[in-house]
Specification:
The protein is α/β, with parallel strands linked by helices. The chain contains 11 helices and 12 strands. The strands form 2 sheets. The chain has a 6-stranded mixed β-sheet, with helices on both faces. It has a 6-stranded parallel β-sheet with strand order 9-8-7-10-11-12, with helices on both faces.
Length: 289
């Protein structure tokens, strides 16, 4: 296989590390191709999917804010995408386009690396946020063995909507009235909102986000892990707040790499080694922030 035409559709996409990671995957697997950033408005999604269906592209990722909207453009959903109603990977199957979601598996893989083989063993998990990433986080929490999953969002109506969507799959999520209520006594915090995204420690925005994060972290169980799905900067404000409180913390870089590797395998049938992908992503973060 040569000359693969891959890409990421979203808005905006200029900040994404996906091209760096997937070009590293191509090289590691001895394949050639390009991974393009495709910045589109929502009304253009159907045409992007149609280009994949016509064979003009070989595989696509989907990022914010279109992981849910893209489901209306595909021919079928598969795997975790069926339960989530959210898609991050598009695969051409003959003349059909199938929507997959590798976010859940990627998140589970990354959290297990930090938690250890025992997982949550019935302990509660808390989720901050209510978008597509939060839906993936909720499914991952159940797969990791959470006995109770709580979700809180700045707009409570969206959290209620998320809970309703998951209830339709047989999974009961508790909508908490605040971030700290969701976190109270939880063994795992999955931070799946935009709070703190791209904020660096140089002033007011960091200080305000750190104050919020610190209050939430303080409500967690003493041994809790804080996992921020945000990966830029790699030491996010949530990770900084957790470290200040003496709790382990991990950014979303591991999830990003693992979900990318799983998507690449869906397109090519080849499982790329993870370490070259991590190395490429860390170099890019170090160079460009």
């Amino acid at each position: 296989m040569s000359g693969l035409r891959l890409g990421l559709v979203g808005h905006p996409v200029g900040h994404s590390l996906s091209p760096v990671i997937h070009h590293a995957a191509l090289e590691a697997c001895g394949l050639t191709g390009q991974y393009a950033l495709i910045d589109r408005e929502e009304h253009e999604l159907a045409e992007v999917v149609a280009s994949l269906r016509r064979g003009e592209r070989d595989g696509l990722n989907v990022t914010i804010p279109y992981k849910i909207a893209i489901t209306r453009c595909v021919d079928a959903l598969a795997g975790a995408a069926t339960d989530l109603g959210a898609v991050n990977t598009l695969v051409r199957d003959g003349e059909r386009v199938i929507g997959h979601n590798t976010d859940v598996a990627g998140l589970v893989h990354a959290v297990r690396e930090a938690l250890g083989a025992g997982g949550l063993d019935g302990a509660p998990a808390a989720i901050i946020g209510a978008g597509g990433a939060a839906r993936a986080a909720a499914l991952a929490a159940f797969e990791l063995g959470a006995g109770e999953v709580r979700v809180a969002n700045r707009t409570s109506a969206r959290a209620v909507q998320l809970a309703g969507a998951l209830a339709a799959t047989g999974r009961q999520v508790i909508v908490a009235p605040s971030f700290t209520a969701a976190a109270s006594g939880a063994r795992l915090l999955l931070q799946a909102s935009s709070l703190g995204m791209s904020v660096v420690p140089d002033g007011g925005a960091w200080d305000a986000a750190h104050e919020t994060a610190a209050r939430v972290v303080d409500a967690l169980a003493p041994e809790a892990l804080v996992f921020d799905l945000v990966y830029r900067p790699e030491r996010t404000v949530w990770c900084a707040a957790a470290e200040a409180a003496g709790r382990p913390a991990v950014s979303g870089l591991g999830m990003l790499v693992h979900q990318a590797a799983d998507a690449f395998a869906l397109w090519t049938g080849q499982e790329p080694p993870r370490e070259p992908l991590f190395a490429a992503a860390r170099r890019a973060l170090a160079e460009h922030g």
